């Protein structure tokens, strides 16, 4: 089974970069500002087949927008 995480943006998107932590493994994804797009990220293997997600969003100036 292939597990993936999908990121969808639209023309109103102000997020330029996303730091995603999946089960404490960090992944950085660059995003196109004000563009419609779909990005797929392969999830790391999980022994229990469960995932915990934490993420941070940054604008085009590198300023933190949100931290979840």
Give the structure's gist in a few sentences:
By secondary structure, the protein is mostly beta strands. It is built from no helices and 6 strands.
What does this structure look like?
With 68 residues, the chain is mostly beta strands. The protein has no helices and six strands. The chain has strands at residues 4-9, 17-22, 25-30, 37-42, 53-58, 64-67. A hairpin with a 5-residue loop joins strand 5 and strand 6 (64-67). The radius of gyration is 13 Å and the shape is globular. The termini are far apart. The model has no long low-confidence stretch (mean pLDDT 91).
| Record field, number of beta strands | 6
- Tell me the span between the first and last alpha carbons: 27 Å
Structural class by helix and strand composition:
mainly beta
Helix content: under 10%
Principal-axis shape equals globular
Low-confidence stretches: none
How many helices?
0
What number is the mean pLDDT? 91
Sheet-strand content, in percent, reads over 45%
Largest sheet: 4 strands, antiparallel
Q: What letter string, H or E per element, gives the SSE order?
A: EEEEEE
Rg measurement, Å = 13 Å
Strand order of the largest sheet: 3-2-5-6
């Amino acid at each position: 089974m292939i597990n993936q995480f999908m990121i969808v943006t639209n023309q109103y998107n102000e997020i330029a970069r996303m730091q995603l932590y999946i089960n404490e493994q960090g992944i950085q994804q660059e995003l196109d500002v004000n563009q419609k797009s779909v990005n797929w990220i392969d999830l790391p293997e999980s022994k229990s087949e469960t995932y915990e997600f934490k993420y941070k969003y940054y604008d085009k100036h590198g300023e933190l927008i949100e931290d979840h």
